[in-house]
Specification:
About 45% of the residues lie in helices and about 15% in strands. It has a domain of about 140 residues: Alpha-Beta Plaits. The protein is of the alpha+beta class and about 290 residues long. The longest helix is centred in the middle third of the chain and has 30 residues. α2 packs across α4, α5 crosses α6 and α5 packs parallel to α7. The protein binds adenosine-5'-triphosphate (2 copies) and magnesium ion (2 copies). The site of one adenosine-5'-triphosphate has 2 residues, from loops.
Length: about 290
């Protein structure tokens, strides 16, 4: 780099590296999607195509960034998780967060596939905000993931009941809101069942559980006692050289990226997929190899 008397301005740049050996979650959320969903007439409470589009955008990001371990999406938000051993962009916050731009461009790019009859208007382009949060250990990371999935459940039960009261029950938005104020889950289940003949348990999993995106390897047997060992192991392998990181990326690119709608709160999900918390790629399934 050429030396000039102007170069001192670099001193004004602040370091913004995220802490080493922490889990990094980049959470993006659609800006003003309430309005956007009105504008493009999303079906209420859940427009399946809009969710499929979010998922397609998330899959593109997972494929483009092999450093990503897992992502979880609900409504207009997605959380992308990097392992403590990840050294992407030297963990510089601004660069890591900028991975959400990929979601944005992918979302806009794939919009016509999911909404062929509703071209995007320049004045109402979908945009997202993004932030990076660091979590110090597996327990907190899992609690974070659980928090998002519980949020999904609570919001979906509310929204399903609300929109039933409005669309089928003939209530106005204000009346439906009033009807639901102060109710607990069992009350909403009861309203759905007794008034509309809906058993909430039979609603689609994608609505109740949200979407989990990750790389698929051979599932391990469900062995409740292994988690602690795994947890210790993954803590011990956080430092990886650049060459090791590159090798890991290559292996990860070979795995298929899948979208699941399953419980990520219970241990079983993580125990059967030890590669998620360990950050070490598992064995590729024998038959399906390339994504
Ligand atoms: P902010 O900019 O603060 O995030 P917002 O309007 O995006 O505001 P959120 O709390 O993020 O508000 O909620 C997203 C809203 O987008 C939901 O309340 C819902 O109305 C709408 N929405 C998002 N995805 C869907 C979908 N798949 N089907 C129907 N509506 C959706
Ligand atoms: P910001 O204004 O910083 O964007 P926010 O209030 O819009 O924050 P986020 O921090 O993006 O919300 O949080 C994402 C989701 O978490 C929200 O859509 C909401 O469902 C939930 N959430 C946020 N704050 C709370 C809270 N205090 N209690 C319960 N849920 C919350
Ligand atoms: Mg939003
Ligand atoms: Mg949101």
């Amino acid at each position: 780099m050429a030396n000039s008397k102007f170069e001192y301005v670099r001193l004004f740049e602040q370091p913004d590296n995220l802490l080493r050996e922490t889990w990094i979650v980049v959470r993006i959320d659609g800006r003003g999607f309430h309005k956007l969903s009105d504008k493009y007439k999303f079906e209420k409470p859940n427009d399946r195509r809009a969710l499929d589009l979010m998922n397609a955008a998330a899959v593109s990001v997972m494929k483009a960034l092999p450093d990503l371990i897992i992502a979880y999406g609900v409504s207009d938000e997605y959380s992308f998780v990097f392992h403590p051993n990840c050294d992407l962009f030297e963990r510089r916050s601004a660069y890591v967060i900028s991975s959400y731009q990929k979601v944005m461009s992918s979302y806009v790019h794939q919009w016509p596939i999911f909404f062929p009859e509703k071209p995007l208007e320049l004045s109402s382009l979908p945009t997202f905000d993004g932030r990076a949060v660091q979590y110090p250990n597996e327990r907190v990371l899992r609690d974070y993931m659980s928090w998002r999935q519980v949020d999904c459940h609570i919001n979906n039960l509310y929204n399903t009941t609300f929109w039933m009261l409005v669309l089928k029950g003939g209530l106005s938005n204000v009346e439906a809101e009033k009807e639901l104020s102060g109710t607990v889950s069992s009350d909403k289940n009861e309203i759905l069942f007794s008034r509309f003949g809906i058993n909430y348990n039979n609603e689609e999993e994608i609505y109740k559980k949200g979407s989990v995106v990750y790389r698929q390897y051979q599932l391990e047997d469900h062995q409740p006692q292994t988690l602690t060992t795994q947890a210790m192991e993954s803590q011990a392998t956080t430092e990886l050289s650049k060459t090791q990181q590159e090798k890991m990326r290559k292996l990860r690119r070979k795995a298929q990226v899948v979208v699941d709608h399953v419980d990520i709160i219970k241990d079983e999900f993580w125990q059967r997929r030890p590669w998620l918390l360990s950050g070490k790629p598992g064995k590729l399934p024998a038959e399906t190899t390339q994504a």
